[in-house]
Amino acid sequence: MNLPLFKAKGPSAKDLYIQGLHLLLEGRFTEALSHFIESATLDSDNAAAYYHVGNIFRQRGSLNRAETIHTELLKRHNLPWDLKLKIKFSLIRLALSRKERPRAEELIREAAGESGRAPWVKEELLAVHELAGQWQAALDLKIELDRIKGINDPKRLALYYLENGISLLKENGRAARIQFKEAIKQDPRMPWPYILIADSYFTENRTDDALEFWSKLFDAAPSKAFLIFDKMEKYYYTAGDYGEVGRIYRKMVEAEPENISALLALSRYLFKKGSRDEALYYCQKALQVKPDSREAYFELLRQTMDAAGSLSEIRENVEGLMRICSARKRYTCHACQTRTEEPHWRCRHCGAWDPYGLS
Ligand SMILES: [Zn+2]
Hints:
Shape: elongated
Strand content: under 5%
CATH class of the domain at 153-215: Mainly Alpha
Order of helices and strands: HHHHHHHHHHHHHHHHHHEE
Structural class: mainly alpha
Bound molecules: zinc ion
Largest sheet: 2 strands, antiparallel
Radius of gyration: 29 Å
CATH topology of the domain at 153-215: Serine Threonine Protein Phosphatase 5, Tetratricopeptide repeat
Oligomer: single chain
């Protein structure tokens, strides 16, 4: 009788683990998860497989299961230091998604104590500082990291200064403005710090200082100046100097004849003042610069409809067209495609930086 020499064997714990890693890289999380679970079942010493199981659970929102697996894993004595640290980073993210602030901060301090061990630790630490909104720590670490790597990343630094300033704004306007001014030094073309500095001066009734920063914005980033058009009109209207709005728009159009936002703002301003022919002229100019501009098209419809008031048929058609055109400018996040009417430097949905290309 012939006995088989070898039993038919399935894949080993190690094979399953490596396949799991490949699946993870391909984004096939469900299959990766079952591979890691099988691998850990065959070889309970395979701590890395447990780590990935916990991580995938956390990313899927099964926070309790993730926490149990990772805290149990941390109790093992023979864990390599890097795996131990990776588990801690996962627990930090977990605490942050549960909004358990003190727990997250404690774990971040522990991780920071080991940041000298390898470059990836600093990178991961920076990521959790961002998630936790620890902007001063993020700034310090980012500067250190860039120095080590011999690179310059002024745009990201500027955003950190911006966020750092925001976190100080309620308590101390002056300290916040210092951060905003640092942001300007890093990235003079980013509109937000000028706007925030002006807002903060207005709050303190320092009108001249506020206006100075509006004018700095016009000089430094004229194509982004439209971000304050509403505020500016309101301010000058309240101050009883609405004519200044017109002068500002005219100056902008002179300096940048292809600035659509300025052309349309001037057109709207003139229309309001009753200078209809001139208003129409600037509106048509805007459409020449950018024939597919919804905003310009909408303004043209609004103004022509007003002129053709007595022709009811035209009015009906034009009103129909107006209904399909959104009057408000809308912004779409380049990362998550979420749409909003509120421009910002960071997507409030997914956290992507400069989601609308305004910085
Ligand atoms: Zn987004």
